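Incident review: delayed structure delivery

Summary: a single-chain prediction request sat in the queue longer than the usual turnaround. Root cause was a stuck worker, restarted by the on-call engineer. No data loss occurred. The affected request and its eventual output are reproduced below so the record is complete for anyone auditing the incident later.

Affected input:
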Amino acid sequence: MRKFFSNPLTRFFLLASLVLTGWTVYMQSHSAWSLFADNWFMTVTMMVGSFVAGASSEGGGAIAYPAMTLLFDIEPDVARNFSFAIQSFGMTFAAIWIISTKIRIETTYLFLAGTGGFLGIIFGSFFIAPFIQPAYAKMMFVSFWLSFGVALYVVNFVNSRKSRDSLPSLSAAQKAELIAVGMIGGVFSSIFGNGLDICSFAYVVLRYGLSEKIATPTSVILMASNAVVGFFLHTSVLHTMQAEAVNYLLVCIPVVIFGAPLGAFVISKIGRNKIAALLIFIIITQFITAIFVIRPGISLILFSIVTFLTGMALFFLLTRRITPGS
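Output delivered after worker restart:
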């Protein structure tokens, strides 16, 4: 019996069963099954989103946020809060899978970026996110991630580079730098529902050459922790969690607690260039969709260009590669 419960797969499915049981009891006691009739499109969306959440440095919010705001015309603040809520389930389960199956992660990266992300999401939730206009939030999201896609393409498919499985020994200044990057990512999370994962991922991959196979599962755990903080802030501190976002959450929980761990499992079995190609495809698709849906005017186009160029500066100028021993 002890050997049976020591199996990580067994423990995972027992935990999933407990969550599903609690979810079923809630749905039955609140007669909430009818929510599927009106919100089924989110269940379908998160079948893809949860897999991407576990399989890449772009959390489930990176699929949910653009799909909800661009395709379904849902308000950005609802999409952001749903992203926090759903990632608190899906990416937490992915994190549990990663840890229990001993998929390799980078603990220095996890601790330093996680500390910065915690500070950033709190600051951004109170002082930045409430003042971002919806259309600008949408274009800011896709434009900034497009700059990362370009950077990731260059370092993986244009410039030849060697990757490493861990960060080098960091100086105090370099540790502070990584915390600062985490804070920036946390601020982005406060606006979009995700951001800590991809900002910190970009930094450690481009600056230190950390392998995507190591950086990706680490970023999944990072975003899981950041999402839980965001979910708590909006439900218990700011009291801004909309009923609409909760309804979307309820129809997606059974999907994401399996979809995200599946993504984490698949990504541990494939090469880092395939991971990079998946990210680039997602980013380009998001940007093209935004252009067709939003049809930005001149001011929004200029804002998008400035955001893109700022991202390029961040990903190329601020992440100049550190060579081992330097």
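Verification: The chain has one domain: 8-16+35-317.
Action items: add queue-age alerting; document worker restart procedure.
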